[in-house]
Amino acid sequence: MTLAIRAIDPVARPDFAGRVTGVDLTVPLAPAEVAAIAAGMDRFAVLVFPDQRLTDDQQVAFSARFGLLEQATGDLAQGAERRLGMTINDISNLDRDNRVLGRDDRRRLFGLGNRLWHTDSSFKPTPAKYSALSARVIPASGGNTEFADMRAAWDALDVGMQGEIADLVCEHSQLFSRALLGFDDFSAAERRRFAPVPQRLVRRHPVSGRRSLFLASHAGAIRGWPVPEARALLRDLIEHATQRAFVHAHAWRQWDLVMWDNRVTMHRARPYDPTAVRDMHRTTVADSAPTLEQAA
Ligand code: OGA
Ligand code: MN
After folding, report:
1. How far apart are CA 63 and CA 58, in angstroms?
2. Where are the domains of the chain?
3. Pocket test for ligand 1, best of 75, 145, 283 (most atoms within 8 A of CB)
4. Which ligand is nearest to the CA of 145?
5. By CB atoms within 10 Å of each CB, which of 131, 161, 201, 221 scores lowest?
6. Whose C-alpha lies nearest to ligand 1, atom 8?
7. The model scores a pTM over 0.85
8. Is the CB–ligand 1 distance for residue 91 below 6 Å?
9. Does domain 4-287 sit in CATH 3.60.130.10?
10. Residue 133, φ and ψ in degrees, nearest 5
11. Alpha helix (H) ranges present in 169-286?
12. pLDDT tens digits, one per residue of 184-207
């Protein structure tokens, strides 16, 4: 087997979203394979690995080759309420007995936050570098995941706007993203756990040097700006950044693993039948430092 990476849409998006073949992620990777995948991530930002029948332990072992793994402290379910271990973000609609959550269940309603454009863990002081999402059970239809290229979005801004926003610092929190959906059913302890954190609005990729917008529905304020003006700008930027020309839609097949670079993309879930099972397991590689401590 030789590892190969090909653009999924070579005409419209030659440098965004690649498909990886010739590698088995269930067994330990050779250093050259890890290096090829990291180089593919630097170029494509989203990689699809079809037909990877991973256990949680294998997914953790694979992901850990790319850096320190996050703990799932951003999930609503913690402690005895959890279905999966703390190195797996539970992106399912299941309770701990593997039953589909009721339509009004607060864990489901909180999870609907994934329908808004976001980047993972921008609500943590050090946000996520890579996410790897494994499709264990998928519904018969719907439930795509869409990815938007924040490098292309930056490149397409006019120079005046680029100058205006280059040094801005935002505040991100899951309280902000859930408020957009009218969800405010948080305990006092959850409000403390989800307190806002600062993030640069514009980042530079450490390898390619390309600049990108660092946006998410978690962003609810800009330091030094009145809140309504900040939110109006953030809305404009998200609208700009998620034009269809910048978006790749992934239609899942069971056992796909999709890996994305949260530093340079946003993503969102699309709707599906709320009575159907959708069981996705995510491992998340932490970035190296808070964005304010990284080179601008
Ligand atoms: C995630 C996420 C979207 C989806 O796993 O971080 O946002 O389609 N998933 O489930
Ligand atoms: Mn996500």
Report:
1. 9
2. 4-287
3. 145
4. 1
5. 161
6. 269
7. yes
8. yes
9. yes
10. -115, 120
11. 174-180, 188-193, 227-241
12. 999 999 999 999 999 999 999 999
